[in-house]
Amino acid sequence: MVLQDAGASQTMAVELITVGDELLTGDVVNTNASWLAGELYARGVITRKIMTIPDEIDLIADAVRGAQRRVDAVLVTGGIGPTRDDVTMAGVARACDVPLAAHAGAERWLTGEGGYSATDLDPETTALPAGARFLRNPAGVAPGAVIDGVYVFPGVPGELREMFALVREEFSGARQATVTIDCAEPESALLDRLAFLDDNYPVAVGSYPGESVRVVIRGADEAMVDAAAEWLREHAEIRD
């Protein structure tokens, strides 16, 4: 049993937007989305949608606006920095109906911890949506930002993870109990048992074929999750 602490009473919902032409061509594997979804789920936060879009300001703005209407927070990764194709901040600014503006806190951080001299600092590097909260980058130099429930992170996985650690406590919700069972039967043979669980227990059931069939049972009620798991163990062939 893995119990995600049920201390919070409300479920927080988010959408993830990963930005980058390289993700859509397959040149780079999108590990950021799966990592973030796992981190958020562990904190009781539900990811409602994951989108991958190219480095285009209009598409970024449209995606962010739509997500803002649907969920509590939007997490955007990729496309921040000084190069010409780093247009995510501009897209987020457009979605929030504000201009890009140099951020004094980002400039102080870059000329201090970031190691830039004031004369060498590209103004575009410190340009954030006006009114945004600046997020420092412990593993790089591209600053992040938070505005109107939109969190903007770097696309470099190590930088993303370090920056997310700074705001992790801002994401929490009703955490769920989870049980995983490895079944030795084919998924098609388990359909009747999986349907029984769906019909008779207030839990969510997912089945994932591989060398065995991994059945994941989740729910807010730990006792119901345990009962459903015990029923499946009694009525299915379990892999040792």
Instruction: State the end-to-end distance.
Output: 16 Å
- Measured by DSSP, the beta-strand proportion falls in 25-35%
Helical residue percent band = 25-40%
Main pleated sheet: 6 strands, mixed
Kindly name the structural category.
alpha/beta
- For the biggest β-sheet, the strand order reads 3-2-4-9-8-7
> What's the total number of strands?
12
> What characteristic shape results from the CA principal axes?
elongated
Oligomer: single chain
Explain how this protein is built.
The chain has 240 residues and is α/β, with parallel strands linked by helices. 34% of the residues lie in helices and 25% in strands. It is built from eight helices and twelve strands. The strands form three sheets. Strands 3-2-4-9-8-7 form a six-stranded mixed beta sheet, with helices on both faces. Helix 3 packs across helix 4. The protein starts with a strand and ends in a 5-residue tail after the last helix. The N terminus is likely disordered.
Give the secondary structure arrangement, pairings included:
Layout: E1 2-3, E2 12-19, H1 21-24, H2 31-42, E3 45-53, H3 57-70, E4 73-77, H4 88-95, E5 100-102, H5 104-111, E6 127-129, E7 133-135, E8 144-147, E9 150-153, H6 157-167, E10 177-183, H7 191-200, E11 204-209, E12 213-219, H8 222-235
Parallel strand pairs: 2-3, 2-4, 4-9
Antiparallel strand pairs: 1-10, 5-6, 7-8, 8-9, 10-12, 11-12
Summarize this structure as a short list of keywords or feature phrases.
single chain; 240 residues; alpha/beta; six-stranded mixed sheet; four-stranded antiparallel sheet; 8 helices; 34% helix; elongated; disordered N terminus
